[in-house]
Structure formats: C-alpha cells, structure tokens
Task: structure prediction
Amino acid sequence: AQSVTQLGSHVSVSEGALVLLRCNYSSSVPPYLFWYVQYPNQGLQLLLKYTSAATLVKGINGFEAEFKKSETSFHLTKPSAHMSDAAEYFCAVSDDNTDKLIFGTGTRLQVFP
Amino acid sequence: ETGVTQSPTHLIKTRGQQVTLRCSSQSGHNTVSWYQQALGQGPQFIFQYYREEENGRGNFPPRFSGLQFPNYSSELNVNALELDDSALYLCASSLGGGSTGNTIYFGEGSWLTVV
Result:
C-alpha cells in the first residue's frame, strides 16, 4: 500500500528564511503526490501536485516541490517565509486511480518575526 | 474558494445519536470522497462515491454510511455516535472515472463534537 511520511511534526523559521518541509513516499509505481495547506479552523487548500509531467512543480503562494525518485522524496520549499505561511501542511499520495488520498501526519509551520 | 460546500459547519451531538452531514461537489465533478480528521492528525479516508456508487472504503465501521445523489451531491451518515467520532469531516470532489492525478478539491469541513 502507498504511504507518505512527513519528517518533523513542527518546523519553526524566521520571517524571510527558507522553508523546507519534508515528505517521503512509499510506492511501487510512479505516484501522484500532493501538498495541501490547512489554516486554523479551515479545510484543505491545494498548494501543488506532481503528476509526472515535470519533476519541479511550482505551486501557489511561492511554494514549489521537487520529485526525486532516487530519494523517494517530494519536499516542499519556499525561498522566503512570510508570517501568513504559518499553517499545517500535509503531503498526500493518490492511491492508484481512484482519487483517494493517503495523507501524512502533517507538519505545523511556525514563522517568527 | 473551491466550489465544494459542506453543511452544517458545526454541530454537537450526544453519544448514541445519529448525524447526517451534507456536501455539494464542485460543478461537473462526479466523484465525492469523505475524510475524517481528528484533532492533531491527518485526514483519514472514509469512503468515496463515483456516479452514485460506492467506489472504495477505508477502515471505518459500517455505522459510517453514505449516499450520492444524481446531481453528485453527497451525504455522510454516522449512526450510534461515539465520543471518538468527534472530528472535522471533510468532503472532497474530483472528476474521477479512473483518470489519474486529478485535482481534488476540499470543502471547509463540518466540525462534529460528540458529548
């Protein structure tokens, strides 16, 4: 079965610093990978998705992620953190072709002034 | 704004009661999935409906049931509520049909508290 592992339940950065949120996947076939953001008391918003078209995926709000097959990773990055980036971030993998998502446990990003 | 709407946004139920949550999918989407997100955890897949038929189920007991209507809106029903059912219930819509890598849009969720 497919799965994703998010390393680090909490990440803290200063405003303007690089954001790096880690996600590793376990899949025997090329996966479809997603990053979602969840602001307090809200639903999930899609940041970006990987569907094998390009290994470097650019998303909304300045985020991007790189698919590395050799490392089975799909880490999320942003060059310069903003206070508004503080939220919970979830990595997810699509199970086969059913649009069913398997989520990681999430990483809470804190941004300090 | 994802075009996926859920109701109610918040509700409180007593243990043993039944609850129905509703979801309107994004226009043109024929697939609706339901997820349970307990506090501090990632969403867990409950089940999915594609063109009014159940199309996959996660590790949830039969007291979690659902429906999808001809307009592709959906309901999640939970019977015999337990305290552990307290969670955010998320609805997601997509254009399924076996295609892969579809964009999956989530609603704002329904917060259920069981006391």
